[in-house]
Amino acid sequence: MARAAALPIAIRQVTKTYGRVHALDHVDLDIRSGEFLTLLGPSGSGKTTLLMVLAGFTRPDHGSLLFGEEEVVRRPPHKRDVGMVFQNYALFPHMSVAGNVAFPLKLRGVPRADVGRRVEAALELVQLGGYGERRIDQLSGGQRQRVALARAIVFEPRILLMDEPLSALDKQLRERMQIELRRLHDRLGMTTVYVTHDQREALTMSDRIAVINGGGIMQLDQPQRLYEQPANRFVAEFIGESSFLPVERVPGGFAHAGRVLAIQSLPAAAGRHLLMIRPERLQLLGAGMGEGLNLFDGTVEEVVYQGDSILLQAVLASGARVAARAPATAGAMAAVPRAGEAVRLGLGPADTVILADA
Amino acid sequence: MTAIAERPNAAGLRRDAFLERLALFGLGSPALLLVLVAMVLPVGWLFWLSFLADDGSPSLEHYRRMWQEPSYGRTFFVTFQVSLLTTGICIVVGYPLAYVLSQLPRRAANLAMIGVLLPFWTSLLVRTYAWLVLLQRQGLVNQWGIELGLWSEPLALVHNLQGTLVGMVHIMLPFLILPVYGSMRAIDRDYLKAAANLGAGPVGAFWKVFFPLSLPGLFGGALIVFILCLGFYVTPAVLGGGRVIMVSNRIATDIELFFNWGAASALGVVLLGLTLALLYVASRLVRLDRVLGGGH
Amino acid sequence: MRNRAIPAATIAVLLAAGPALAQDLTVVSFGGAYQAGQSKALFQPAAAAMGIKLKEETYTGIADLRLKVRANAVTWDIVTSGSGSAARAGAEGILEKLDYKLIDVSSFLPGTAQEYCVGGDVFSTVLAWNTKTYGDKGPQSWADFWDVKKFPGKRSYRNGVAGSLEPALMADGVPMDKVYATLSAPGGIERAIRKIKELKPHIAVWWSSGAQHAQLMKDGEVDMINGWNGRFDVIAKDGAKVAYTFNQALLDYDCYAIAKGAPNKDRAMKFLAEISKPQYQAEFTKYITYGPTNKKAYDLGTIDAEYAKKLPSHPDNAARQLPVDLAWYIQNEAKAAAAYQNMLTE
Lengths: 358, 296, 346
Hints:
Chain A is an alpha+beta fold. Chain A has nine helices and 21 strands. Chain A has two domains: about 10-230, Rossmann fold; about 240-355, CATH 2.40.50.100. Chain A is about 25% helix and about 35% strand. In chain A, helix 2 crosses helix 3 (about 110-125), helix 2 (about 95-105) runs parallel beside helix 4 and helix 3 (about 110-125) packs across helix 4. The model of chain A has no long low-confidence stretch (mean pLDDT about 90). Chain B is mostly helical. Chain B has helices at about 5, 10-50, 60-70, 70-105, 105-115, 125-135, 140-145, 160-185, 190-195, 200-230, 235-240, 245-260, 260-285, 290-295. Chain C is an alpha/beta fold. Chain C folds into two domains: about 5-120 and about 255-325, D-Maltodextrin-Binding Protein, domain 2; about 125-250 and about 325-345, D-Maltodextrin-Binding Protein, domain 2 (3-Layer(aba) Sandwich), CATH 3.40.190.10. Chain C is built from 17 helices and ten strands. Chain C has helices at about 5-15, 30-50, 60-70, 85-90, 130-135, 140-145, 165-170, 180-185, 190-200, 210-220, 230-235, 265-275, 280-285, 295-300, 305-310, 315-320, 325-345; strands at about 25-30, 55-60, 80, 120-130, 155-160, 205, 225-230, 240-260, 290, 320-325. In chain C, strands 1, 2, 3, 4, 5, 6, 7, 8, 9 and 10 form a ten-stranded mixed sheet that branches. Residues about 1-20 of chain C have low confidence and may be disordered. Chains in contact: A-B, B-C. The interface of B and C includes residues 78, 137 and 245 of B.
């Protein structure tokens, strides 16, 4: 299949209320042409509603929606010409695999000879070449997922929407499909909007992630920025593990439990703030170590072996709790203190992130 | 050491499995017994009777008479004609109704479904006579029609094929609507969304996706209606004016008038045979397990 | 009178009901206005006179009794029946022979006391019409019934052969006293059926029960019908626009028989002797316009002379009618019924 011309999407002031609940609250979002953008959020956050607005299945109360230059907010779904992969795939059970994939082509009046060729090409693309005659109920979950994908892209839409397409698959298959989907996107180049509640999936696949909660966008950023510099406590908690320590403002910076923190980038905003600590960024320190780090002393509460790493819970002298993760190498294992023993933890200035406590 | 040691508890586990099957069979046995007593024995008895002459000697005379006497053929024709027409009208009337119900919110649909099922609460005889009262020459329909100036002479609405069909459709409609409605409710709305997303307008989505998916229910309902119609007695007797003579009516006359159980049994056997043949053909056309299972 | 509705259902109910509780005597009849009259005029007074406890039941016809006799589950003692059905049932062996030393039929109309069944009332199958349609210029003969030009309108005719062939022959020009001779001759039945076929397009309803044919006239559903005179009088009393003529009517009677294997056979015989007495029969005429079979009933003076003229068996009326020939029915009914069914189905 050829690379499709992609379209940018502009969402302006889109609002949808159900009774008094704002499912979408004046959402503004620009999705770049050819971008893989993920809408990430907990269930009920509005991410699926936003996707349904894009597909045309949900009519917003007001707002504007542009595909390229065209206003499409009042266009019915069957005229929007966007591909979509449904959460449960929604493959037509009364049609064969080929019948499903050919469906959008036939509706578009593609000549019969071309239909067969394009269906086979789309199936090849999702590695299901030769499966055309199969019935849907003869396929495994992963195969169904691929058919749904083939059906969504066979008519070369310039926008592809995916609604938690991998949530029904088991973990291993899901991880393989994440990479495959991303490769496919890179190859076809259409603008892709992907909905998921799985932060790891979002981090793995996306160019940018829009974290959604309460009908609004909390943060729109690249995966790494989102992880390293979350905009607020919600984003930090939703993406990755983290501990939060109270901080007080001191001249020129912040301090925890009276100890001034070395910080690389200070937040501009006033108001209450928190120190965010990612467990894997905390280092277990031996005696005399810790030059140039922010140091935290405490007592080990619990040590949990997790295969690839060791998770350690500690209570600091200030009374706050933190989690630290250490690689489970043979050497590190021996050095890990036991529950009840004292421990010293260090955090580099670049990893010392101060968040607004919103 | 021995087989027992290598396969511990094998005998005991096998016994448990056997007892479980036995218990399951035990649950089913009252129904089996009922079917045997209420179905197999009487049908077998009728089957036997149909091969006996009036004097009790074995004979094919009842079947021969049915073959030679054109009026029997005519009776079977009428039976199948009435059943087919009733089924057809039930489909035309019931399918859209089931569709509307299936699109309503569940609570409203349940209420409406009670309305559909309401006829089941009154006896078939009462409903049939009610139609007679409505449709006869001096009945309400003719009175209103004439008063409103829609027609000037009373129409022959009953005591004929049309009247019979009205009564039978009324009685049969729920039997069609229920499976069709069930089948439609089971259709995931995402199928229709997917169809729209792929470029199908509402009409296209209905015919290409919704309708085919509702077919198992439609086929099941139509089959139930058709087969129930084949055995109808009261409605054609009351609303047909003695002119719509179906197999059941013929059986009744044969017993009452001729005191002829053999002839009546033979009619029953032939009707049963034709019905089974039809079921067989239908099962070849559609996978019956799907129809009866209601799934897809 | 004969009420043929849903026999299968009735049979099932009867079989399920099982043996009735022990009663001194159980009588079964056709229900409706007819049985109501029987009960008040015959059954209850006679039971009181004999000092016995009586149970009344309803049935649809002799086929029900046949089932009971075959199943060895006879709970009925006395059955009410049409004369023809009783004659055939007697020949078939499902009725007890009557003891005419006990039952006094010396003053009965000739032919109304059969070996297995003693006459109870005389009725007519008459030509009735809607007086709203035809006023006082109604059809007066079967020829008129068949004349759709002179008497346009919807007809209803019986869906069974009993009493249906004779009018057709009379309409076809056969004199009343030659009807059975003609029917017995080769081609006679076919001739009658051909004549009915001629009228078929004008027959809107083929009626199957006494209740139904009375209702058809009451509702004005048809304009003309053949049927049982008593039923028409009952609905006329209710205000139905119906009149009938005894001219060319068929004179027939209902009778009482004892079921084969009746639990109280001897008492049943005494009961039949009791209700055959003229005073009961005279009383019965007050409820429905069916005449007595016992001529002495007229001598008691309890039947009003004016009223007596309305009864089928009144000499003035009887003279204009054709008495039904039971012998012909016993011999030919099965064959004729089959031909009739075929005609209906065509």
